């Protein structure tokens, strides 16, 4: 893909939510663009008349999505991508296969970052008890800036007795950035698996599979991938090539597109991560929407999204700090998801309710309000946020 160097301009005309709504909340859910919505409507219309549907039609949509996502994350082999319904499903695949990890021993640790999203935490309770593993959580420092100290503590926690590290690219609540390349190097040095939740980063922040070299990457589709809800994508490295899937979906077997021979039961899976696809993964309505969303992102480009969001928020952030709000320094965060820590005398949930009354949508997460702009946001949206907080 040829990378465009021209800056992104505001894409607000592609999004049809109300003109007076100041939606700075993509980290909760992305609004669908007209292009993505139309892809869904077209898909529904095609289903009004299923005449001419062929067996291959159950597979081709997902093939295109895999190829597009592989471009987005610089993954040379699209067959390593599986279609999943949620982060919990993708992480459950990791948990299901952890007992077969080479060198696994009782007493080893699963390392997590503090205050992580629940699906990245609950996944390990059962398997850690069954295998006699310990869950070790690296908590966030109490004060800002936190990124450097948090990264140092995380790297220090990855020792030879670590079996698995679960880490995002940025923290889902506060936007704190983790050095995944350094984490990946450390994991490989001690023989630990690295599972990355890319839900709050991939699509808006550049992600390079070949540089990070995780064992697993899971992403929900409805946030920064800007697609439909209840669809996601997961990538599994060589450690999972002969692994055990969560379900035995018939479509995941070799020659499953030969409908006239489905009774000739096939013991072999399709290659790569195909065995990890959720059943009925070709979803005739959702898949075209996800494909359109990925094409849109490849046009936007994560690097240009970051630049757009940085310039959009540049003048507002000093004003917020002057009002007593705190932010991680620029070097320790992304530009698309900002944890804006509220002053001690304020309650984050109360602040978000007050903002919503002024038609400004952000989220309350922990001790911060989470501000998450995108290319549909305008300076007027940011000014509305600042004025409401002031």
UniProtKB/TrEMBL annotation:
It holds the Pfam family Aminotran_5. SUPFAM superfamilies: PLP-dependent transferases. Transmembrane segments: none annotated. InterPro entries: Aminotrans_V_dom, PyrdxlP-dep_Trfase, PyrdxlP-dep_Trfase_major, PyrdxlP-dep_Trfase_small. Residues 64-385 form the Aminotransferase class V domain. The keyword Transferase applies. Keywords: Aminotransferase, Pyridoxal phosphate, Transferase. PANTHER family: BLR3095 PROTEIN (PTHR43586:SF15), CYSTEINE DESULFURASE (PTHR43586). This is Aminotransferase class V. It comes from Fibrella aestuarina BUZ 2.
